[in-house]
User: Which sequence fits this backbone?
């Protein structure tokens, strides 16, 4: 029996040490789009990445040929769908280096993964006066769930500082780790600044004090090799749509011993072994955290996306995207009215910037007239904007299907902004 996951690998590009970007672009139908009569230049990958054909085909194949609910049926379609769904779990396990598939929980998004940890791990364990440590560069999804948890338990949220380059200040972070610290939760890569955090050092400092660590890996997974056993994090959250997969699917990794000890925070079908009006017995891992009908097509699409990215090679991706980052930094820095926000020494392919004579939204509007898609606003990271004293930035975030010519087009578009508003 052949699953949708295994079939999805047949059109992946050949693995090479050097990317054939022209060939790769052919795998993404949306890149042929015209915007205002111009070729689309898509530089909003940190918000959501585009999907290769094999992802679209894998999901379409499921709906056309395999559509059934999982774990509940003995008929042919249910068996096939269940196999494809659980094969996807095994694929994610290998991708992040988890010890076993029971450590892989499918959720809607990285946001849901963080909320799950907050409610299932944090809420029963935290007491008034306990502390949670995050950093000043976090996405709202790694701020608000902890604020909610603090409101529920009386715990206190501590925020580690960042410097003017947008780098985590390890001394300030370490100073916050105390006897009442119960959890650290940090982004691996900042969505607003592109900063790659020194998560290994941060975790060593926490673990030396017996403090567990959660990593928000949503922005890291498309750019960096993840290995949860090497990292030794207690929890990791990733999301499919930034990894060239579907929206509405994410992953929570948790160490098995911790997940075993946690209670589910959602109840319903498939997360139970037995139900009576007197008592419910929960299912085994990972199913006790997957209440209700899951996003089956999304998990299959995510597995196809992982196949695609790994076939290209994350090391080659990282090297190529670093070249894009360097080019974007160079050409934007050469425009006198442009100021880059976030100049960390170690960055993913993200450049946030302000144009002195124009609001970020005006920058985005003018660029859109040129067919160039960037993100404008606070990027769900308002405290970052406050830290740098700006209301918003324009953000160009790159992927392995972007070209140097597109980066030059971005610079040309920004010069038009300056000419128009300056």
Assistant:
């Amino acid at each position: 029996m052949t699953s949708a996951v295994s079939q999805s690998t047949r059109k992946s590009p050949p693995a090479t040490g050097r990317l054939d970007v022209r060939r790769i672009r052919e795998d993404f139908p949306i890149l042929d789009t015209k915007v205002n009569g111009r070729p689309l230049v898509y530089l909003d990958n940190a918000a959501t990445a585009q999907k290769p054909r094999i992802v679209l085909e894998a999901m379409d194949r499921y709906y056309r040929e395999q559509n059934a609910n999982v774990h509940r049926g003995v008929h042919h379609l249910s068996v096939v769908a269940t196999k494809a769904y659980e094969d996807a779990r095994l694929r994610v396990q290998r991708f992040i280096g988890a010890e076993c598939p029971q450590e892989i929980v499918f959720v809607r998004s990285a946001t849901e993964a963080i909320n799950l940890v907050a409610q299932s791990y944090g809420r029963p364990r935290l007491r008034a006066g306990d502390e949670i440590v995050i950093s000043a560069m976090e996405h709202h999804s790694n701020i608000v769930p902890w604020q909610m948890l603090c409101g529920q338990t009386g715990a206190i949220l501590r925020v580690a500082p960042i410097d003017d380059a947008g780098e985590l200040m390890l001394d300030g972070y370490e100073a916050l780790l105390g006897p009442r610290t119960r959890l650290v939760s940090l982004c691996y890569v900042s969505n607003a600044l592109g900063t790659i955090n020194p998560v290994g050092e941060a975790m060593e400092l926490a673990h030396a004090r017996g403090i567990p660590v959660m990593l928000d890996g949503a922005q890291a997974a498309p750019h960096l090799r993840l290995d949860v056993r090497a990292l030794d994090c207690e929890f990791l959250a990733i999301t499919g749509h930034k990894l060239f997969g579907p929206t509405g699917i994410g992953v929570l990794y948790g160490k098995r011993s911790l997940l075993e000890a946690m209670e589910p925070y959602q109840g319903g079908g498939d997360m139970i072994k037995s139900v009576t009006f007197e008592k419910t017995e929960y299912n085994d891992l990972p199913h006790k955290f997957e209440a209700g009908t899951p996003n089956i097509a999304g998990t299959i699409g995510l597995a196809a996306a992982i196949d695609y990215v790994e076939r290209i090679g994350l090391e080659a991706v990282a090297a190529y995207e670093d070249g894009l980052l360097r080019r974007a930094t160079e050409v934007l820095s050469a425009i006198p009215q442009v100021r880059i926000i976030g100049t960390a020494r170690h960055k993913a392919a993200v450049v946030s910037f302000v144009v002195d004579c124009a609001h970020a939204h005006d920058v985005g509007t003018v660029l859109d007239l040129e067919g160039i898609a960037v993100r404008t606003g606070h990027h769900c990271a308002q405290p970052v904007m406050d830290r740098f004293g700006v209301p918003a930035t324009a953000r160009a975030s790159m992927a392995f299907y972007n070209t140097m010519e597109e980066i030059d087009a971005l610079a040309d578009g920004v010069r038009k902004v300056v000419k128009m508003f300056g």
